[in-house]
Amino acid sequence: MRSVIVVGGGISGLAAAWQLRGRADVTVLEGQARVGGKLRTGTIAGITVDEGAESLMALRPEAVELAAAVGLGNALRDPAQSPTTIWTDGALRPLPAGHVMGIPTDPAALIGTGLLSPEGVRRAASEETLPAAPLTEDCSVSAYLGARLGQEAVDRLVEPLLGGVYAGRADRLSLRAAMPRIAALAEQGAPLLPALRRMRAAGAPRSAAVAVQGVAGGTGRFPQAVARACGARILTGTTARSLHRLPGGGWRVQAMTSDGPLTMDADAVILALPAFAAAELLRPHSPLAEEELAAIPHASTAVVTMAFSRARSHFLPQGNGFLVPAVDGHTIKAASFLSNKWAWLHDSAPSVFVLRASIGRIGEDELLDRPDRHLVRTAIAELHHAVGPMGEPLAARVTRWDRGLPQYGVGHRERVTRIREAVGKLPGIAVCGAAYEGVGVAACVATGRNAAKEVLADD
Ligand SMILES: Cc1cc2nc3c(=O)[nH]c(=O)nc-3n(C[C@H](O)[C@H](O)[C@H](O)COP(=O)(O)OP(=O)(O)OC[C@H]3O[C@@H](n4cnc5c(N)ncnc54)[C@H](O)[C@@H]3O)c2cc1C
């Protein structure tokens, strides 16, 4: 049986291991003490909550299908239905129904919401009458949507959602990579709003916010379940340090464990790693892949999770949470009211209210240099302004995701093509992960599955 080493035990690597089950002898090397990467649960006030990703995209099938296949089908849960809400101008303001990634398909519905100025609403509505030359090359989200809808709509409606998903900024993120459905419409060269309305009338695209699912007990259970079910040998606390090509074919991985160095050989190696970590291992074998991978910027973020006593808090917020426009100058970029959003969490700890605030977009590293207690105080103070005085939390914890989210800059898709071409010249090597075709868990699962198919096809 073909032997495969998967380096990286996040959901991408585990999805690859699952795809290879029964068809290869698989070993997963994971540097941390447990698998899962950005899917991880932790406890606060004795309650298990997600510290990283809290939901799976259900608009595309890969993640929910895999969750069901590894025995979590009965644990998949819809979030409470609640509109996407923006904290701006001193209040929480729901985005009108019908938006697509913040793009208002019916700008008139924005009137009176306080989300845009009257001039901003008029400017967005004028999109339908603007000439629309077909988009021929990639540009930033801001360049395209700013020209179509006006900068105010980008700053106040679109960018908060991009901040939530990518911790990214609209003037840096690629339209083609970060908003592929919008880019596809732009390439047709027709006004956007009527095209989006037609697509919605035909049943798609729905807003991502109503098309996610979580896992009861925490979405962090998902990678653990895949690891158990995939039948692979899982070596945690094992960091791959170098990759060597064997003269007779195949590859050697040299790793470091708490017991000392470990050397393993295999027919194929899948690098299921953040781009910068894959770049290190590929440097001796493909300077081009190394250079392109190392050029992908990453945003660091921190998640501040807090538990409040329901009995002692004067006030608890409604809804699922909110997003914050970067132009408003607040520190938190989003808040998720976990106890409202996930019924399983409320039911498991009815006397406690758990929420989390996210801090840190690309370019905001100095914010994250501050100590945990500072981030907690800032989050409490801003939540107080946004939703009301909740009082002091029973417990708070800060989870830092250093370089946690790759940024799909302008030209990202072409960069990924170059990376895949360069890696394709190394027989028995495949790459997968959040750096390539989507940062969401479902996209990561898809890249893991594809990497497994690639190394099997090399046979
Ligand atoms: C705070 C946060 C919230 C998010 N929320 C959502 C969400 O709600 N929904 C959603 O769909 N997506 C969300 N995402 C994005 C999504 O979680 C990630 O993009 C995805 O989980 C990445 O999976 P991965 O396997 O590609 O990478 P990772 O999870 O980074 O896994 C890579 C693994 O490789 C290991 N590793 C690194 N170097 C080595 C080495 N040399 N040797 C061995 N092991 C190594 C790491 O320890 C890690 O476990 C969120 C991301 C963050 C940071």
Task: Please give a structural write-up.
- The protein has 459 residues and is an alpha+beta fold.
- The protein has three domains: 2-40 and 60-76 and 219-296 and 408-457, FAD/NAD(P)-binding domain, CATH 3.50.50.60; 98-201, Orthogonal Bundle (protoporphyrinogen ix oxidase, domain 3), CATH 1.10.3110.10; 298-406, Polyamine Oxidase, Chain A, domain 2, CATH 3.90.660.20.
- It contains 17 helices and 22 strands.
- The strands form seven sheets. Strands 12-2-1-16-22 form a five-stranded parallel β-sheet.
- Strand 14 (251-257) and strand 15 (260-266) form a beta hairpin.
- Helix 1 (11-20) crosses helix 17 (441-457), helix 2 (62-72) crosses helix 17 and helix 4 runs antiparallel to helix 5 (151-166).
- The mean pLDDT is 95.
- Bound molecules: flavin-adenine dinucleotide (FAD).
- Flavin-adenine dinucleotide is lined by residues 7-13, 29-32, 37-39, 52-57, 239-240, 272-274, 277, 301, 303, 401, 404-405, 433-434, 439-441, 444.
Give a short overview.
The protein is an alpha+beta fold.
Identify every distinct bound molecule in the structure, by name, code or SMILES.
Answer: flavin-adenine dinucleotide
Q: List the uncertain runs.
A: none
Per the principal axes of the C-alpha atoms, what is the gross shape?
A: globular
**What is the mean pLDDT?**
95
Query: Number of helical segments?
Result: 17
Largest sheet geometry: 5 strands, parallel
